[in-house]
Amino acid sequence: MSRLPAALTMIALLTPLLLGACSSTQTETAKSDLNPATDISTAAVLSLACSGCHGATNGAITSLDSRSAAELRGALLRYRSDEDGGSVMHRMMKGYSEPDIEAISAYLAGDVSE
After folding, report:
1. Cα separation of 64 and 72, whole Å?
2. Degrees (nearest 5) of the Cα angle 49, 79, 102?
3. How large is the C-alpha radius of gyration of the chain?
4. Do residues 69 and 109 make contact, with C-beta atoms less than 8 angstroms apart?
5. Closest C-alpha to 47, from 72, 20, 81
6. Sign of the torsion formed by the C-alpha atoms of 14, 19, 22 and 27
7. Which H/E stretch holds residue 99?
8. Nearest to 75 by CA among 93, 61, 91, 55
9. Is 75 exposed, middle or buried (CB count within 10 Å of its CB: 0-12, 13-18, 19+)?
10. Which CATH architecture has domain 36-114?
11. I need a labelling partner for 51 at 20 to 30 A (CA). Which of 11, 75, 84, 89 fits?
12. What's the pLDDT at 71?
């Protein structure tokens, strides 16, 4: 009788770990295959996090509406490479690859056609 709860506990603990290991490889592959000029849906999804703070209606933080792709890309890469930065932007950019940043920059600048 005591073996069943122990087995169920073990399964409950290992399942998320195993699923996470399987899905992370798939996600990295999908991100690295991104072509910002042709994949607007992926670029839009990657850019969703930006709109929470930088949306036109927020007003608390600068809007990104008038920024060029090159300007956005440069800023995002600086956030990602700055080891001493402690802002939210520094932490967020650590999770994006260079192709991700290319896609986000192009999408936010309106350089991606639908």
Report:
1. 8
2. 65
3. 19
4. yes
5. 72
6. negative
7. helix 98-109
8. 93
9. middle
10. Orthogonal Bundle (1.10)
11. 84
12. 95
User: What percentage of the chain's residues is helix, strand, coil (to nearest 5)?
Assistant: 65, 0, 35
Tens-of-pLDDT digits for all 114 residues of the chain?
455 566 566 666 656 655 555 444 444 444 455 554 546 688 888 888 888 888 777 667 888 888 999 999 999 999 999 878 888 898 889 889 999 999 999 999 987 655
Measured in degrees and rounded to the nearest 5, phi and psi for residue 85 equal -70, 140
Q: What spatial distance separates the first Cα and last Cα of the chain, rounded to whole Å?
A: 59
Residues 6+ apart with CB under 8 A from 77: 93, 98, 101
